[in-house]
Amino acid sequence: MQNDLFSALNDPEEKIKELPDLVDWVSRAPTAVSHALGDNLIVEYTNLFDASLSLRAFDAIDATTQWRQDQIRIAGRTIPVPRLQCWMGAEHCRYAYSNISLEPMPWTHEMSSIRDLVNQVTGAAFNCVLINKYRSGEDSVSWHADDEPELGPSPRIASLSLGATRRFQLKRKASPEMTSAARSERVVIALNSGSLLVMEPGVQENWVHQVAKTKIPVGPRINLTFRTIEDNR
C-alpha cells in the first residue's frame, strides 16, 4: 500500500493528511554504516527511506516549504546564496551564519513528522532544521562547520537527503602542526536519496564539510539538517 503514501501530489492538503503514517513505511531495520574520522565518527543510515518513499517525501516537502534565497557578501561582492533554504523550528530557535539571520518558521505537519522519526532513529531531541534545496549541480555549499555558538559546544547534526545523489566531502580543520598529508586528506560520502547521515559530537570541532558544484548533470536535491538549540530564555 506504499503507493498511497504522499498520494495526490498536486494537492498539499492531501499530502499533509497522509504524513502521520510516515513511520509505518520507513525501513524497519535501516542499515547503519560507520565512517571513522580519526577520533570522530559519522554514522550513515543508508536506507532509512526506500526509493518510492523518498520521491514522495521530496515532492511533499518541496510543495509545502516556504523557500527563500538569501544574499551573502564575499570578497566585497553581494551574491545570491547558491541554493534555496528554509529555517524551521521551535520559537526560541533563532539562528545566524555568514551574516544571515534566520527566524524560525513554525513546524509544518510534514517536517514535524520527519523530525519525530529522525529523533526516534537517532535517540536525539532535535528541535530545529535547516532545509536546503539544491536545484541543480550549480547549487552548492562551500567548506564550513556547523559550529555556531547557539548550537552548543559539541553539536550533533543529522542530515536526511532526498532526491539526486551529491558528493559530501570532509577535510580536517587547518592547524599549524598539521602535516601535508593531513591537509590533503579528503573523505567523500555519496549522499543517496533516503539516507540519513549523523555527524556525532566532535565532528564540527575538527572537520569542515561541503557539497561542491558539479558539471555532471544532476537533478534537484533536498537536504534536511536537524540540530538542537537550547531554550535559555
Description:
The chain contains six helices and 15 strands. The protein has a single domain (29-47, 56-227), classed as Jelly Rolls, CATH 2.60.120. The protein is an alpha+beta fold and 233 residues long. It is globular, with a radius of gyration of 18 Å. It starts with 11 loop residues before the first helix and ends in a 6-residue tail after the last strand. Helix content is 21%, strand content 33%. Strands 1-2-13-10-15-8-5 form a seven-stranded antiparallel beta sheet. A four-stranded antiparallel beta sheet has the order 9-14-11-12. A hairpin with a 2-residue loop joins strand 3 and strand 4.
Task: Report a brief summary of the structure.
The chain has 233 residues and is of the alpha+beta class.
The oligomeric state of the chains shown is single chain
CATH superfamily grouping = Alpha-ketoglutarate-dependent dioxygenase AlkB-like
Query: Share of helix among residues?
Result: 10-25%
The whole-number mean of residue pLDDT values reads 87
What CATH architecture do you see?
Sandwich
Radius of gyration: 18 Å
Widest sheet, order of strands: 1-2-13-10-15-8-5
Unreliable residue runs: 1-17
Q: Total number of helical segments?
A: 6
How many runs of DSSP E, i.e. beta strands?
15
State the name of the first-level CATH class.
Answer: Mainly Beta
What is the percentage of strand-forming residues? 25-35%
Q: What shape does the CA trace take?
A: globular
N-to-C SSE string, H for helix and E for strand: HHEEHEEEEEHEEEEHEEHEE
N- to C-terminal distance: 45 Å
- Secondary-structure-based class equals alpha+beta
Number of domains: 1
CATH topology: Jelly Rolls
How many strands, which pairing sense, and closed or not: the largest β-sheet? Answer: 7 strands, antiparallel
